[in-house]
Amino acid sequence: MDTWGRARPARGRLAVATFATMINPNYPLASWFLALSTSLFLVVYALPLLFVPLRWARWFGWELPTGNNHLTVYFARCLGGLALAVIIAVVQFIPDPKSHLVIFELIGLIGGVMTAIHVWGAVMKQQPWSETAEIPLYGAVCVAALWLRYATLS
């Protein structure tokens, strides 16, 4: 048995974890929220920011500064690395969300802060339309994480 009480595969067999086997049957909504949100943020934000930050910026409509972009690339890769680290941590909690309530608080906090940052950028007219369009996404992530934490997992 592993740490979540599931049977381990026989020796010599390759064990491939899928979302379906990671979803907690007692708290499927919380598990699916973690699984789907980490997948989305991994593909759309973390990996592109880490490996192709300037291409990612162009995809989202940012006007790139001329000249030396080393600082831009550095900060984007730092943000991508931080996002990847959070995603790796969250994935570990998908099978047992009830025992890791603080991760929902962290996701709610991140969603709230990102909503505020994007609202500020929209008000100041300092970002492309695609970033303003993300405001409802971050707001929904914040509300969903806190609702799961305090209404369904408490």
Folded structure, characterized:
This protein is an all-alpha fold and 154 residues long. It has seven helices and no strands. The chain has helices spanning 19-22, 28-51, 53-59, 70-91, 101-123, 129-133, 135-152. α5 runs antiparallel to α7.
Q: Please mark out the parts with pLDDT under 50 across 5 or more consecutive residues, or reply none.
A: 12-16
Mean pLDDT: 92
Number-wise, the strands total 0
| Helicity level | 55-70%
How would a textbook summarize the main sheet?
none
- Helix-strand makeup class: mainly alpha
Protein traits:
154 residues, single chain, mainly alpha, 7 helices
Describe this structure in a few short sentences.
The chain has helices at 19-22, 28-51, 53-59, 70-91, 101-123, 129-133, 135-152.
Topology of this structure?
Layout: H1 19-22, H2 28-51, H3 53-59, H4 70-91, H5 101-123, H6 129-133, H7 135-152
Helix pairs in contact: 2-3, 2-4, 2-7, 5-7
